[in-house]
Amino acid sequence: MDFLKKEWTNILLIGLLVIMVIPQTRKPVQIFFNRIVAFAPGITSEDDRDKIENYNWVLEDSEKNRIEFKDYQDKIIIVNFWATWCPPCIAEMPDFEKLHTDYKDKINFFFVSNERHQTVAEFFEKNNYHLPNYKMLTQAPNPMQGNTLPTTFVIDRNGYIIVQKVGSANWNSESFRKTLDKLIAED
After folding, report:
1. Burial of 67 (0-12, 13-18, 19+ CB in 10 A)
2. Distance of alpha carbon 116 from alpha carbon 127, whole angstroms
3. Cis omega before residue 143 (within 30°)?
4. pLDDT of 10
5. Cα dihedral value 42, 45, 46, 52, nearest 10
6. Kind and range of the H or E run holding 148
7. Burial readout 147-164 (b: 16 or more C-beta within 10 A, e: otherwise)
8. Would you state the pLDDT for residue 64?
9. Phi-psi region of 101 (alpha: psi -120 to 50; beta: other; left: phi over 0)
């Protein structure tokens, strides 16, 4: 019993390391920890905001229709680059689902993955998500190019990126919803 009292932290650490090494347990643990540490995304100060250089970006929706990003110029847009194999991406999907349910008629959502549409559709069906899924046919416009998943951009009607978040976040937070409500009200 004295051994357990003295070594409980080491035993816990070794147990956690073992869990992180086993592939079947690693991903759920990573998702869980990402959900715990996710905070509301920060708003970029007006002086530091980048502007979309152009809207010449072609996407393909889940029905294999060609989507021109330029058709969404002058609208509020949320673009999320993600993948079904990415634990931080998976961790923030429930928040995006809630946000999309409440704002889909006011904001244009683009969930962009380089995976096959069928792979994403199966993931969405398994998790009961109803998010609009896209695949890139051409390169994203500057400054939305990057390789880190997840990366999310919130773009105002004037093309300014008011949020640029790399990593998971709590997109369903009260403070972020207030930010969206303010953007919607600015007509």
Report:
1. middle
2. 17
3. yes
4. 74
5. -50
6. none
7. eebbbbbbbbeebebbbb
8. 95
9. alpha
Give the residue among 127, 176, 20, 162 at the shortest CA–CA distance from 153: 162
**Residue 20 pLDDT greater than 70, yes or no:** no
Fold (CATH) for 40-185? Glutaredoxin (3.40.30)
Q: H/E element holding 92?
A: helix 87-103
Report which of residues 112 and 42 the model is more confident about.
112
Helix (H) or strand (E) holding 31: helix 23-37
In the chain, where are the structural domains located? Answer: 2-35, 40-185
83-98 residue pLDDT tens = 999 999 999 999 999 9
**Is the peptide bond between 150 and the residue preceding it cis, with omega within 30 degrees of 0?**
yes
Pair 153, 145: CB distance under 8 Å: no
CA atoms within 13 A on the CB side of 16: 9
Cβ contact 161:168 at 8 Å:
no
Average pLDDT of the chain is 90
Residues 106-149: tens digit of each pLDDT: 999 999 999 999 999 999 999 999 999 999 999 999 899 878 99
Residue with tokens 């080491």: 10
